[in-house]
Amino acid sequence: MLVGVDIGGTFTDFVVADGGRLRIHKQISTPDDPSRAMLAGLAALAGDAAAFERVSHGSTVATNAILERKGAKTAFVTTDGFRDLLAIGRQNRPDLYALQPTLPPPLIPRERCYEVAERLDAHGAVLRPLDMTSVDAVLDAMRAAGVESVAVCLLNSYANPAHERAIRERAVARGLFAPEQIVLSSDVLPQFREYERASTAALEAYVRPTMSRYLGRLAAALPRGESLRMMKSDGGIFSAERARGAAIQTALSGPAAGVIGAFHLAKLSGYDHIITLDIGGTSTDVALLPGRTVLRPDSEIDTLPLRIRLLDIETVGAGGGSLARVDAGGALRVGPESAGANPGPVAYGRGGTQATVTDANLVLGRLDAARFLGGEMALDTAGATAALERLAGAMGADVATAARGVIEVANANIERALRRVSIARGYDPRDFTLMAFGGAGPLHACEVAERLQIPRVLLPRYPGVLCAFGLLMADVRLDYSRGVLAALSTESLAQARTALDGLVAEARATLAQEGVAEADMLLMATVDLRYRGQAFELTVPFESDVAEAFHAAHEATYGYALRGRPLELVTLRLEAVGRVDKPPMRPEPVTPNDAADARLGVRADGVTLYERERLRPGARFAGPALVFQLDSTNYIAPGWAAEVDGYRHLVLMRL
Question: Phi/psi class of residue 191: alpha, beta or left (left: φ > 0; alpha: ψ in -120 to 50)?
Fold first, then answer.
């Protein structure tokens, strides 16, 4: 059996694949120790977790450690004269018009930033040899300070890592640090741009001990021999052992599994141009997939640059647990603050007092107090109503108006995120299908689609646990890169191809260690190019005519190409994919029917109620309707019709 486990802010979700059969399970998350909910869920599913052949896991441990500043006590080592590199950064202004802008402090304070005497030029040639006396002095100072982890980023070390490696060897030889405690920027990000490389190395050093301890606890609790794999930010997975040495690759990976799962299921139903809408308890994640997954080369965590490849996902603080309030100007606000897993929405009866989006949905009748979580968790309707009454009093409105206002504001926040991934990037959302999932995604899908005139909504069979399902669909994925930074020429291309041969050999060996057979290995080489004088690059396939490929990509992206202008080769990349066994998905026969077998009744307000488990392929019905299931509640708004396809997905269309 295979199992996917996704730990969210409110619930921990499980999907078990046993042959062609899927089982799902949900546990309340345990934010103080996320592994507790995971292990409890595995025990509830299997009794004996040894029955699981592979456990694929998505975790927010690394992200939370950064956001909450609860990572390791970390030091930073750099070339003399660059001690303040992390503090100075790029001098960007997050708020252009703030007279006194407030920037978050560097991840590593200045008193734990150290300099060593050395210098390399831009090509990696030694201008000043590494002074081991200064290295020993720095090592002694870090040891005295009780440093747990060290990030080393020397000037131009992407072109020549010898000095960085010498520092690590010295630290290990003296018995002051273990190899895994020393993070080298030339290992984490062998590319130019000093600040981004330093920031990424610092982030890795900051979260590695925390992630290593977390994975160590999990490994000790799981049966011996059970394979544990972790989700990466690029939508791939890798072994937990490798994750302990590349912890930053798991940051921002939370929503990635949902995108992978959604794309897989949408293609089965015949839709490969989709916009994903993942609404959980704390946030909403959206992504646009124009027939393929889209990666971007970098991101930020709490304004700290993170230079790793990751799925292009936009996140806003609008989820089921998002708190509603009236601000000082009398305007209704929803999020980004969230009730989280504890206490959660007022309706959960766990001590919450402030109205949330979930409470508004309950008051509006879009959730059923007796059928939430498959009837396993009763909702407190009276408490939710009282919370909305307090909000309505502050608004000077009635309860129903306040509840509708909360939903409208949340939907407006979500709409802005959808516009950023579609219209702002040159895509017409009317050409796409909205794939809605997460615990609250199917509650908001119709209204959000109407805002952007999206003609079709797809609700997967198990929307509330799709991220956990996506973990079962993810392949092993590894990324390699080498900084080149040379004028594009026959000579530089030949050097890049030689370097590529080395990366290919390394990738094949690593995939083999991950248990991937030779026949299941896919290797794709790309290069980053730019016009001379440009500050940013475009990535194109490393093929016979990379120059023309770049010109075409530049014209498609920016509307013009300068074919007579010299090009620069910046970075060589290799994406290594290892295909893994996936649960088989086979369509059932479709027989047109009126969904009578699944109908539970009609409420006084005209909303028809259905049981999702009893909906057969070919069933057709119109809104307004509610479809109940264990992991989510599906709301089909007035003016929309639903049809069940062969994979038991709900396909919603405007009437």
Answer: beta
